[in-house]
Amino acid sequence: MAKQGQSENRGLDGLTTAARDAAAASAAGKGLPPVHLWNPPFCGDLDMRIASDGTWFYQGTPIGRPALVRLFSTILKREDGKHFLVTPVEKVGIRVDDAPFLAVEMLKQQDGRGRSLRFRTNVDDWVDCDAAHRLRFEMAADGGLTPYLHVRADLWAKVTRALYYDLVDMGEERVVDGVPMFGVVSAGEFFAMADAEQVRGAL
Predict the structure, then answer these.
(1) How far apart are CA 23 and CA 88, in angstroms?
(2) pLDDT value, residue 158
(3) Percent of the chain with pLDDT over 70
(4) How far apart are CA 118 and CA 103, in angstroms?
């Protein structure tokens, strides 16, 4: 509990400074900090939460500065199903209600592999949907499907409902392991949404 208290009392100022220092030291401020290389001591949980709509909260209050949210997003790390903010010298736990990011915009492009999809997240990262950044679809509470895009290092973005409908519109059927599946193609990869017969029955 003492560690948790220490983390709470530290507040955002110290963490923000450490995050800025880490970002500046990373390839002269270019690209994302190498959080996968950092293994600092755990300093407790911070009263920070990422809601299912992508809003970041600190002590119950939304963080209203997009630049600050962007900064914290660059030092986000997931380990054993839990999310942390990590700098070279400390690691603090935060809560994530669903996925830490939202995919809010989608571009369709054509290249040698055919159609390729690019997604922009709510923190302005652009992610190419391909074998390394896959789409997965989970059953939602209302019986529908919720798509998620792999952003990096086991961090995912929930695809907005509007973009989900766009994905359905461009969907097609393919046989996967002998089973007809409905899904979407990007960068030569087929990402299955659901059993094709179930989809046909729902239409």
Answers:
(1) 11
(2) 98
(3) 90
(4) 10
Beta bridge partners of 93: 45, 84
As beta bridge partners, residue 149 has 135, 157
Residue type, 1: M
Which amino acid makes up residue 3?
Answer: K
Measure the CA–CA gap between 85 and 7, rounded to whole angstroms.
12
| Model confidence at 132: pLDDT above 80 | yes
Number of residues in the chain: 203
133: exposed, middle or buried (Cβ count in 10 Å: 0-12, 13-18, 19+): buried
Separation of alpha carbons 43 and 6, rounded Å: 8
Looking at residue 71, its pLDDT comes to 93
CA 96 to chain centre: 11
Query: Beta partners for 150?
Result: 156
